[in-house]
């Protein structure tokens, strides 16, 4: 049975986050088969599915940071600054530490087994891991340990949470005025144009100098992009007219996003040989603008279709809202570990990819079923006490999760 959404409740953002997470599982399975470097690689790796991977790359993380900003705005208003920071720190930092020293290490172990032919046992590797051994290198590319790998998103989200709380503390009642002003600007075509312009400028200014590292202290383009969208979500959280306007332009936004994606597929495949460097730099700048337009248009489309079709609560939403963070914590380790262990079977890539996706879903949700029932395990996976599970039924996303 479904209950229609009251005007101030944003159940559709929970659904968007849940659906984006399922995209994430397929994306990380895909990372095993593309030509880009990853923790482990398939012998069938190549460029064949890279255009499909590009379908979600421009918008997936930005959407989830924006949803996280919406959640932060609601939670801070409900808990106050001190309570908000205490709750967020407990629900983010404890799973991050647990993940770095329990969940993530198998990814690093299989990575060094494949990339540098490490022959030691897992126990011997863990002795090196916890003591920050720096000798696992290919040329100048060395593995940093301990590492957070896909849990970088949790670390960034905690930092943005602290900065947002400081901004709110300093702004006081002015934050509501900023929210109203922004919502007043974002009408009609400006919903697409103004945020795209902001994101494009950030790309043009910062991306040539700061590649994405997920290393926190040297990741300035990623921070500028992600935190801008986080703050955009926080400012627009209580602006119901904005979400209705997004709903109204969902089809044009989708069309623009798909057109940009098709243009990028052609541009990225175009041979660069023979193009002089000054012209090539201009081509890169155009691609950066198109990428920003693709990402923001896709976010608008996702929110618009979600607002139109997913504006309802249900038992499934409540279950999946609670499940998504534990499943996120587990999923990449499962994919990396199984991908490495399946290699001797010599499966064809389609069958192997399907098996990886199905087993990752089944094992991670099965683990969640155990975790949710054991009080000592719940906080390690970002779940609150069993008696305080209001986040899963509040219609306010508690934590948005994804990562590469």
Automatic annotation (TrEMBL):
UniProt xrefs under InterPro entries = Acyl_transf_3_dom, Glucan_succinyl_AcylTrfase
Q: Name one GO molecular function term.
A: acyltransferase activity
Q: Which Pfam families is this protein grouped with? A: Acyl_transf_3 (PF01757)
TM segment ranges? 12-34, 59-77, 89-110, 151-171, 183-206, 251-270, 290-307, 319-341, 353-371
Source domain of life is: Bacteria
Protein name per its UniProtKB record: Acyltransferase family protein
Report whether Transmembrane shows up as a keyword of the record: yes
Q: Name all Acyltransferase domain ranges.
A: 12-366
Keywords from the UniProt entry: Acyltransferase, Membrane, Transferase, Transmembrane, Transmembrane helix
Source species of the chain: Massilia soli
Instruction: Tell me yes or no: is Oxidoreductase among this UniProt entry's keywords.
Output: no
| Alphabetized PANTHER family for the sequence | BLR4337 PROTEIN (PTHR36927), GLUCANS BIOSYNTHESIS PROTEIN C (PTHR36927:SF3)
């Amino acid at each position: 049975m479904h209950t229609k959404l009251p005007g101030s409740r944003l159940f559709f953002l929970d659904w968007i986050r849940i659906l984006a997470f399922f995209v994430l599982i397929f994306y990380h399975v895909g990372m095993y088969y593309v030509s880009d470097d990853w923790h482990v690689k398939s012998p069938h790796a190549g460029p064949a599915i890279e255009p499909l991977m590009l379908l979600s790359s421009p918008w997936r993380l930005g959407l989830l940071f924006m949803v996280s900003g919406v959640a932060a705005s609601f939670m801070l208003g409900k808990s106050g600054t001190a309570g908000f920071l205490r709750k967020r720190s407990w629900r983010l930092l404890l799973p991050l530490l647990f993940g770095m020293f329990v969940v993530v290490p198998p990814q690093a172990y299989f990575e060094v087994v494949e990339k540098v032919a490490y022959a030691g046992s897992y126990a011997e590797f863990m002795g090196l891991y916890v003591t920050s051994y720096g000798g696992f290198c290919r040329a100048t590319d060395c593995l940093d340990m301990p590492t957070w790998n896909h849990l970088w998103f949790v670390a960034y989200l905690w930092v943005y949470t602290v900065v947002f709380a400081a901004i709110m503390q300093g702004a006081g009642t002015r934050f509501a005025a900023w929210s109203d002003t922004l919502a007043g600007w974002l009408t009609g075509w400006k919903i697409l144009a103004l945020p795209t312009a902001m994101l494009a400028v950030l790309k043009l200014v910062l991306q040539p100098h700061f590649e994405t590292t997920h290393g926190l202290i040297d990741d300035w383009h990623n921070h500028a992009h992600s935190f801008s969208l986080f703050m955009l979500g926080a400012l627009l959280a209580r602006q119901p007219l904005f979400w209705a306007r997004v709903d109204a332009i969902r089809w044009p936004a989708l069309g623009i996003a798909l057109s940009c994606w098709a243009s990028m597929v052609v541009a990225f495949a175009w041979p660069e040989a023979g193009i002089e460097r000054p012209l090539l730099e201009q081509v890169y700048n155009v691609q950066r603008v198109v990428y920003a337009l693709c990402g923001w248009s896709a976010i608008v489309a996702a929110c618009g279709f979600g607002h139109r079709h997913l504006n309802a609560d249900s038992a499934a939403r409540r279950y999946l809202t609670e499940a998504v963070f534990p499943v996120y914590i587990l999923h990449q380790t499962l994919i990396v570990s199984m991908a490495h262990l399946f290699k001797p079977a010599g499966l064809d890539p389609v069958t192997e990819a399907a098996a990886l996706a199905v087993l990752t879903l089944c094992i991670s949700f099965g683990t969640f079923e155990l975790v949710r029932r054991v009080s000592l395990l719940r906080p390690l996976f970002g779940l609150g006490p069993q008696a305080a599970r209001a986040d899963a039924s509040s219609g306010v996303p508690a934590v948005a999760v994804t990562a590469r």
